[in-house]
Amino acid sequence: QVQLVESGGGLVQAGGSLRLSCAASGRTLTSYHMGWFRQAPGKDRESVATHSTGGWTSYADSVKGRFTISRDNAKNIIYLQMNSLKAEDTAVYYCAARAVGESSWGYWGQGTQVTVSS
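Above: the chain's sequence. Below: its structure in token form.
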């Protein structure tokens, strides 16, 4: 079992930056692909960024060049650095873990609210 706890959300003006953190406990993250997802009011949850166990990263087109996902395996934490924030980035952000070899994201945090004022 992996427990995930996000932090770092808040209110920021458009053009500003935030760094989200996701602390894991229960298992080491080296055996899990990690991802950040978000869900805005009235919209489906969408993938924002993923980080594989091998270090490969992927991003939604809407955040490419502005967001960076990283992990610190020694601290068992993943990060999402968000720069040049836009009002449309407003959402609840969730981190998730997917065990190597599995097809679904089996572990989720409780989410952290990010609000970008324009």
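The mean pLDDT is 96.
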